[in-house]
């Protein structure tokens, strides 16, 4: 591929995360010649989504910590006397402390592979420490074949449809093309079922009822392509910057979305639903009539708080939690407002930030549903691919599995003038955008990174059972001790096209204070119980059963100043990875700051 690449571009973008993909699309649409490269074999970087076997292959890549491509030793010879090189890293060090546990029945057979698999790949996952939980963890051996995630162009990863410029919101269960592929390949016999079939001629002849909710590890693998597991867990505010960008740029035609159906709160050991809209407030049985009036009065003030500075100016220096106490709200209301509307913790923000967060929540209500949030079908990883598709449509060139050895800098002007890729090809450009993870330790020696603790769970039912099993929920679990971070829980049902039927995909996120498992396992234990055979027989299990769990820490580079990097040329722009926030505003703000000359109607920025 390198032999056919043009030798000169207007913009070279390294990394296919969300901000890089938006910038690439904007530049391509405005007529710039764009080269978009990524050393990974998939789109999205740390914004990506994977099938179940794809996530196992991703884990194996970090376990081995090996290079995908071979370095061309000849690139140093291309650096002239009046030039110097900024060497880029070929190893991604943004993921740490990875631990995987499997609690589902492990009746895996050698001939079980993922339905719809395009190719086989021997995959293994990283085990946790040898605790009791780790003893139940399943580690696939080399004899068991699992498929890697498909790495086609974005045009083949999202179902095609002729959508209107406005967002396509689905309120009913979706059965798209990806769902239809495996209708005849979804059942795998468990060990106990096979044992029964040996003694009885057919299943129809037996009088014994089948076990309920019997989900095995082989079923998860067999239907692995129904899973779309996000590395980063986020939602879209219905009036947020990214929604506006999707509509204005017409990229929304490439994606579909579902409403988040309910907002939950964890209080006194129970999960409860929080009333959001005016109708929900007055229909709620959790609040007294006096509390309903108090809540509506306070929320009405929050919508216009800037017009009444005398009401909050004296409290600007205290926390939002302390301010709520001055508003004569009951403990019940203070808890709802703090953790489920402002979505902050006791000490995380001051009064003004809390009022801003509450207003942002309220102004997003009602645009597409009863909650302020939307979720993209097939996962968050669809969004970078949508913008990559637009870039390609307008002539952008894409190269995955294509690493860059170095940036070439002119010593006199201190401007970057070219890159040298893995094949030793020198490619000239005017502007360069680089995702933070590509910089070497020499460039980032003065950078202080924060960390995000992440967990992904597969469970057998929702944390709060209701009449409908197609609920998409967000839950905030406050920190147990003062100063600890709240944990955000997002629970996805099968209609989001992110998990197989009969399961839920649960994402947990918080700012790291320790390893991901140490930060998040206490919350997992509060909400779920490990899947065991003895509990299968008991239909009245209080908590959802945990089938599979993944923990990892992800680097948060969102608050890193450009000045923290060593000797970056002025025409090299840095894009950060995902932040810990719920929305995507930080990614869009990066785009606006990097593209001041492209903020016109044509690009939609």
From TrEMBL:
Residues 183-209 are annotated as: Disordered. Keywords: Cytoplasm, GTPase activation. Its main location: cytoplasm. The keyword Cytoplasm applies. Residues 452-580 form the RAE1/2 domain. One of its GO terms (biological process) is vesicle-mediated transport. The keyword Cytoplasm applies. It comes from the Eukaryota. GO terms for molecular function: GDP-dissociation inhibitor activity; GTPase activator activity. InterPro entries: FAD/NAD-bd_sf, GDP_dissociation_inhibitor, Rab_escort, RAE1_2_domI_C. It is found in: Cytoplasm, Cytosol. One of its GO terms (cellular component) is Rab-protein geranylgeranyltransferase complex. Belongs to the Rab GDI family. Substrate-binding subunit of the Rab geranylgeranyltransferase (GGTase) complex. Binds unprenylated Rab proteins and presents the substrate peptide to the catalytic component B composed of RABGGTA and RABGGTB, and remains bound to it after the geranylgeranyl transfer reaction. The component A is thought to be regenerated by transferring its prenylated Rab back to the donor membrane. Substrate-binding subunit (component A) of the Rab geranylgeranyltransferase (GGTase) complex. Binds unprenylated Rab proteins and presents the substrate peptide to the catalytic component B. The component A is thought to be regenerated by transferring its prenylated Rab back to the donor membrane. This is Rab proteins geranylgeranyltransferase component A.
């Amino acid at each position: 591929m390198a032999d056919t690449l043009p030798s000169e571009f207007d913009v070279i973008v390294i990394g296919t995360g969300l901000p890089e993909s938006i910038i690439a699309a904007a530049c391509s649409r405005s007529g710039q010649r764009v080269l978009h490269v990524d050393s990974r074999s998939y789109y999205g970087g740390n914004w990506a989504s994977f099938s179940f076997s794809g996530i196992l292959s991703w884990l194996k890549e970090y376990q081995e910590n090996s290079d995908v491509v071979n370095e061309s030793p000849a690139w140093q010879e291309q650096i002239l006397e009046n030039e110097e090189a900024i060497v880029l890293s070929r190893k991604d060090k943004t993921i740490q402390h990875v631990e995987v546990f499997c609690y589902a029945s492990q009746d895996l057979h050698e001939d079980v592979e993922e339905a719809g698999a395009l190719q086989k790949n021997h995959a293994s996952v990283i085990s946790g420490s040898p605790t009791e939980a780790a003893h139940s963890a399943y580690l696939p051996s080399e004899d068991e074949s699992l498929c890697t995630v498909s790495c086609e162009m974005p045009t083949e990863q999202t179902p095609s449809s002729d959508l209107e410029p406005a967002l396509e919101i689905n309120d009913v269960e979706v059965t798209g093309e990806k769902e239809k592929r495996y209708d005849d390949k979804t059942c795998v016999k468990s060990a106990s079922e096979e044992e029964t079939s040996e003694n009885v001629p057919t299943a129809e002849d037996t009088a014994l009822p089948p076990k309920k909710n019997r989900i095995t590890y082989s079923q998860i693998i067999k239907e692995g392509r129904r899973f779309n597991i996000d590395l980063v867990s986020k939602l879209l505010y219905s009036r947020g910057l990214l929604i506006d960008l999707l509509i204005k740029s017409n990229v929304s035609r490439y994606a579909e979305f579902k409403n988040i159906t309910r907002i939950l709160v964890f209080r006194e050991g129970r999960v409860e639903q929080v009333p959001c809209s005016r109708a929900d407030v007055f229909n709620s049985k959790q609040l007294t009539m006096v509390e309903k009036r108090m809540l509506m009065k306070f929320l009405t003030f929050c919508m216009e708080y800037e017009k009444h500075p005398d009401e909050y100016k004296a409290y600007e220096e205290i926390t939002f939690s302390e301010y709520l106490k001055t508003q004569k709200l009951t403990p019940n209301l203070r808890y709802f407002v703090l953790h489920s509307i402002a979505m902050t913790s006791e000490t995380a923000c001051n009064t003004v930030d809390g009022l801003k967060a509450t207003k942002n929540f309220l102004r997003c209500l009602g645009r597409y549903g009863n909650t302020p949030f939307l979720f993209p079908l097939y996962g968050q990883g669809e969004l970078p691919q949508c913008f990559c598709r637009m870039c390609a449509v307008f002539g952008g060139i894409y190269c995955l599995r294509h690493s860059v050895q170095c940036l070439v800098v002119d010593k006199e002007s201190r401007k970057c003038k070219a890159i040298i890729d893995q094949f030793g090809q020198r490619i000239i450009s005017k502007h360069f955008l680089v995702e933070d993870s590509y910089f070497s330790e020499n460039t980032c020696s003065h950078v202080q990174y924060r960390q995000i603790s992440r967990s992904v769970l597969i469970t057998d039912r929702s944390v709060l059972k209701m009449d409908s099993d197609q609920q998409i929920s967000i839950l905030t679990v406050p920190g147990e001790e003062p100063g600890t971070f709240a944990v955000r829980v997002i629970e996805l049902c099968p209609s989001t096209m992110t998990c197989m039927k009969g399961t839920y995909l649960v994402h947990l996120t918080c700012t790291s204070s320790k390893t991901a498992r140490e930060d998040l396992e206490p919350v997992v234990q509060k909400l779920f119980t490990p899947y065991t055979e003895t509990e299968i027989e008991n239909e009245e299990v209080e908590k959802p059963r945990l089938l599979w769990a993944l923990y990892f820490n992800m680097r948060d580079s969102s608050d890193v100043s450009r000045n923290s990097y060593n000797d970056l040329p002025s025409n090299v722009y840095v894009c950060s990875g995902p932040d810990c926030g719920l929305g995507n505003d930080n990614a869009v703000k990066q785009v606006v700051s990097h593209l001041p000359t492209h903020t016109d109607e044509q690009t939609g920025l």
